[in-house]
Design brief:
heterodimer; A: about 110 residues; mainly beta; B: about 120 residues; six-stranded mixed sheet; four-stranded antiparallel sheet; globular
Chain lengths: ~110, ~120
C-alpha cells in the first residue's frame, strides 16, 4: 500500500480566488490521479499526472481551470482556479504503487466556495 | 468507454446479518479489474476487495466476498455478520488492465449508502 497525505484537509474560499491542493506520497509512484467528488455524488477523474510530462485531462476538465504540477515521483499539486460555488467538492488524489492494479487514496480535501 | 451501475442508492441491514450490494458494468474489454471501495463519513476511500477478471474464483476478504459473473457483467458484494462500523457509502469500480495511462484509471458507480442498525 501507500501512505498519502493531502493539504489542506478543508478550506472555505471566496468566489474568484484559487486554491492549490498538495498531495504527498511516502513512496515513488509513476502515476498520480486527481478525482473530484461533488456533494452526494460519486468520484470523477479530473486528470492523470505523470512525472516529467504534462497531465492528461479527462473530458470536461481543462488545464486552465485545473492546472496540475508533478515535480517529482512523490508529490503533486492540483489548483482549482477562479473558483465558483459549483467547485465545492471533495478533491482526492490517488496512486497505484509499483504500477500495480490497486489504487490507494489520500484523505481528501473538502473545498467550500462561497 | 466503461460504465458502472449501482442500482441501490440506499440499503440497511441489522447488525450481525448479511447484506448484498449489487453492481453491474459494461465494457468491451476482456482483461480488467473490479473493486469495491468503502467511504465512511470521514470520506477516506478504503479498498475493501478486488477481483481480477481472468480469475473464475470469487474473491474473499474476511467477512467480505464477491459474486463475480463475467458473462452477465455483474459484481455484487456480500457482507456477512454486518457490524456497525460497516456503515458507509460503498462504491463499485472498474479498471482496465494495462500499463498505459488510461489503464490505471478507475471508473466508479454511483454508490450505495449502507446503514447497519443495532
Amino acid at each position: 500500500s501507500a501512505v498519502i497525505s493531502q493539504k489542506p484537509s478543508r478550506d472555505i474560499c471566496q468566489r474568484g480566488t484559487s486554491l492549490t491542493i498538495q498531495c504527498q506520497v511516502d513512496s515513488q509512484v509513476t502515476m498520480m490521479f486527481w478525482y473530484r467528488q461533488q456533494p452526494g455524488q460519486s468520484l470523477t477523474l479530473i486528470a492523470t499526472a505523470n512525472q516529467g510530462s504534462e497531465a492528461t485531462y479527462e473530458s470536461g476538465f481543462v488545464i486552465d481551470k485545473f492546472p496540475i504540477s508533478r515535480p517529482n515521483l512523490t508529490f503533486s499539486t492540483l489548483t482549482v482556479s477562479n473558483m465558483s460555488p459549483e467547485d465545492s467538492s471533495i478533491y482526492l488524489c490517488s496512486v497505484n504503487p509499483r504500477g500495480g492494479n490497486e489504487q490507494f487514496f489520500g484523505p481528501g480535501t473538502r473545498l467550500t466556495v462561497l | 468507454a466503461q460504465t458502472v451501475t449501482q442500482s441501490q442508492p440506499e440499503m440497511s441491514v441489522q447488525e450481525a446479518e448479511t447484506v448484498t450490494l449489487s453492481c453491474t458494468y459494461d465494457t468491451s474489454e476482456n482483461n480488467y479489474y473490479l473493486f469495491w471501495y468503502k467511504q465512511p463519513p470521514s470520506r477516506q476511500m478504503i479498498l475493501v476487495i478486488r477481483q481480477e477478471a481472468y480469475k473464475q474464483q470469487n474473491a474473499t476478504e474476511n467477512r467480505f466476498s464477491v459474486n463475480f459473473q463475467k458473462a452477465a457483467k455483474s459484481f455484487s458484494l456480500k457482507i456477512s455478520d454486518s457490524q456497525l462500523g460497516d456503515t458507509a457509502m460503498y462504491f463499485c469500480a472498474f479498471m482496465k488492465q494495462g500499463w498505459e495511462t488510461s489503464g490505471s484509471r478507475l471508473t466508479f458507480g454511483e454508490g450505495t449508502q449502507l446503514t447497519v442498525n443495532p
